[in-house]
Write a structure and sequence with these properties.
It is a single chain. The chain has a single domain, classed as Rossmann fold. The relative contact order is 0.18. The strands form two sheets. It has a seven-stranded mixed sheet with strand order 1-3-2-4-5-9-10, with helices on both faces. Strands 6-7-8 form a three-stranded antiparallel sheet. The N and C termini lie far apart (39 Å). 32% of the residues lie in helices and 17% in strands. Strand 4, helix 4 and strand 5 form a beta-alpha-beta unit. With 269 residues, it is α/β, with parallel strands linked by helices. The radius of gyration is 17 Å and the shape is globular. The chain is built from eleven helices and ten strands.
Length: 269
């Protein structure tokens, strides 16, 4: 991974960006509110089945579309980790009470930043096969520390170094090798290049903000993007005691969405 990313710009840009988020407005007596944040090279569609399960159980669900993903066309030059986290905070501000904030993969960096900024709004912070940084780390720092990841050799930076692509013949093998043909087709159809600058943005975390938030980690045992061993090391370093596991690849909400939903319902108790 290092060869593909070392050449990326390390400067951060703080221009504003726009994104969308979807709220289940008709559920005014929801038991819990879940805010779901997707990862890199993905978009809100990955949460569709999980959202349906959670809503059917009487919960409210907010799915955030990060800027530069899905149908949002914010230029990659304008994107930073703070831009992402501020969009999630905007979504949280639209609902009442505390939320269960869930981040997948790169989304782990985003929800970590959100937890530092608005810790009192978060009931539980849930990482699903997600990057879990310590203060002072960027996603690239974590990625370099995972020698068992198979993502690095499949990365192709754009000529301007502002985006990263995954080799087309590796996308489904990396992200949803255990998914159905329909799952894999959907991933390919919704694929787009990933903004690169947020990968280089470091987080600053404090004990009296991020440190006060209750955290849960859901491991993926057949993950080749963030290896299970590296997930274990991040969990141990962060001191997380509430740990669950799924017998899936990197995108369990596609391959086994009902198992993900069941865990999220259990975590809320």
């Amino acid at each position: 991974m290092e060869k593909a990313i070392l050449t990326l710009l390390s400067a951060a840009f703080t221009l504003s960006a726009f994104a969308t988020y979807t709220v289940d407005e008709d559920n005014t007596t929801a038991t819990n509110t879940y805010v779901l944040v997707h990862g890199a090279w993905q978009a809100p569609y990955v949460w569709d089945a999980v959202r349906a399960d959670l809503v059917n159980k009487g919960n409210k669900v907010v799915i955030v579309q990060l800027p530069g993903h899905g149908d949002d066309n914010t230029p990659p030059l304008n994107l930073t980790l703070d831009v992402y986290s501020n969009k999630v905070i905007e979504a949280v501000s639209e609902v009442n009470g505390k939320v269960i904030l869930v981040g997948h993969s790169m989304g782990g960096m985003v929800v970590t930043t959100v937890a530092e900024k608005i810790p009192t709004r978060i009931h539980k912070l849930v990482y699903i096969a997600a990057f879990l940084p310590a203060s002072g780390q960027a996603l690239t720092d974590l990625a370099y520390s995972d020698p068992d990841s198979q993502l690095g050799p499949a990365l192709v930076p754009s000529a301007d170094k502002l985006t990263l692509d995954v080799l087309n013949n590796k996308v489904t093998d990396l992200f949803v090798s255990d998914g159905s043909p329909a799952d894999k087709k959907r991933v390919i159809e919704n694929y787009r290049a990933e903004p690169a600058i947020p990968f280089t943005n470091k987080v600053t975390l404090t004990d009296n903000h991020f440190g006060t938030v209750s955290k849960v980690y859901i491991k993926t045992l057949h993950d080749v993007v963030i290896s299970p061993g590296f997930q274990d090391r991040m969990i141990a370093r962060a001191g997380i005691k509430a740990v669950y596991q799924l017998d899936t690849s990197h995108s369990p909400f596609l391959a086994k969405p009902h198992e993900v939903s069941a865990l999220l319902l259990e975590i809320a108790k």
